[in-house]
Amino acid sequence: MYIRKTVKKVKDKVYENYLLVESIATPKGPRQRTICSIGHLKPRPREEWLHLARKVETALKGQLTFEKTEPEVEELVRKAREFKSQDKRSPGKKNDDIVSIHTDKVEMEKAREAGPVYVGYEFWRKLGIDDILKEAGFSKRTRLLTLVMAMNRLIAPSSEHRIPGWVNGTALQDILSADLESLNDEALYRNMDKLYPKRGVIEKLLAEKERNLFKLDDTIYLYDLTSTYFEGEALSNPQAQYGYSRDKRFDCKQVVVGLVVDRDGFPKAHEIFSGERKDATTVGEMLDILKKRVSKRKETTVVVDRGMAYEDNINEIKEKGYHYIVATRQTERNQYLDDFEEGGFCELIRSVSPTNSSKKKSGVFIKKIEKENELYILCISEGRGEKDKSIRESHEKKLKCDLKKLTKRINKGRLKKEEKIYEAIGRIKERYPRVARYYKIEYDNLTKQLSYQENTERKSVAETLDGSYMLRTDRCDMSDDEIWRTYSLLTRAENAFRNMKSPLCERPIFHQLKRKVQTHIFLCILAYHLLVAIEKTFLDKGIHTSWGTIKDTLKTHQVATVILPTTSGEILKIRRGVNAEPQHLEIYKNLRIPSKIMKPIKTWHTKNIVTERTRKPL
After folding, report:
1. Cys-Cys with 497: which of 161, 210, 226, 480 at CB 3.0–4.6 Å?
2. Structural domain boundaries enclosing 54
3. pLDDT mean over 327-350
4. Which among 426, 455, 477 is the end of a domain?
5. Where is the domain boundary, 89, 124, 151?
6. Each residue of 69-86: pLDDT tens digit?
7. Which DSSP state fits 105?
């Protein structure tokens, strides 16, 4: 290492500069490499330049000497280190990954959960949701905030108030290469208001993207409803009303959510109705919304459950150009009691293993009856019979218990007004409709007595029909077992609701305004698009698993910062993902996404790590 003088002349003025250089061996022979520029040296004899260079070289190597370090040497060492640090950070350097470190001082910091958010983001990109939001007219910031909210709902559902804290505990910032340190709940609340009017456009574009990406069948639409209850009175939301609660929370106001999915469980359209809305009154409106969301295909069939199997609903489905498969109501099924008792049923073969010639029995027996231009499929399920009996007996026990309590309230004078008594009776009947129909419940205003009596004939019919149900359709071109299998797909809609309520935590709703409530539910559906796409990718490979299992496995795949104290006194920090373990690699392989979460980010720091640590409060 030595000092070299350079001279530059600009407009008759001469500038002198001194460089600290060293000799290095290259394939083309020895070459000089500049360590740093040290500016204009104070007057010093030329013979002392080499001595000064040796002192700087010794100091840079960290070697101890008995001589007192000169201020000038300290200044040159500082400049040299700064120059080397900048040189290492500059792109295009081939040897910046070769450093000497103190191995006993290596540390790690800022470990963040990365696996779940990485998979969620990769499927966000795969579904092209950012492009869809852009096409819907959203800015880059709005798209980023929507992504953050959807990721939170998919991975660790929480309120908008808690999302900023959750983001800082994950590697989302590293994966997105975005600064989310200043994220606050106010920005998220405002973002909900921006999403509210564009929900339909986003849903339409997303349905089309998924249909092409996964080659989905758009000839079967499964429609079902559920309810979601509120915490609080929700006085500013006209849709928040008391009604039949699927969550058994009759003490809370609620809204009703209607959802149409295809045979693979992908959402096609949704709508939020008032909490007191009856299922049967939503069919026409929902079909109109469905037509706006997806292009109608030929021979499209709508499948609904018995709560929407009224004649008016069936006529609505036909008028809008759809075929139908419905589960008939109790009264319609009762007309075919003789057919249920006569026999003539054949057992349905549920599946045949490709590696085994033996057939697997389903325990479901079906019988077809043709009537005019319709088919009626009578079904008897052995497993369902025991379940129906258990549920019916449980409801009957609870019905009697509630009637006894009501009788006690009336006798003690706690409930006197006749209209209030009939309201209480109505609520009990609504709570247990399965068994209330074969009980005669009356209140005598003269004697002030409540009486209830079991109708043995109706109860006998109910017992006979345990495990039986009947399907009705105009698809005369389909076989009876094909009709049953298509109706069984309705569980995909039920599964969507289960996923939205449990892992995605749609309920309870804490928002009080209508637009906030509807956007909250839309974000749950947006997250469900990601969930069903992930599970569908596994299912296409013959792997039956859930998002919850995948998420729990990926939690241990993290991003962290490795701190490497070098022998030169500088600190190299590398932000990178830890190596994926075998179980992580298997998931990434099945999802067809890279196992490398992010490109390593290197930063150089001139402060001593020990000094940084001592500055922190105890």
Report:
1. 226
2. 2-89
3. 81
4. 477
5. 89
6. 567 777 777 776 666 555
7. G
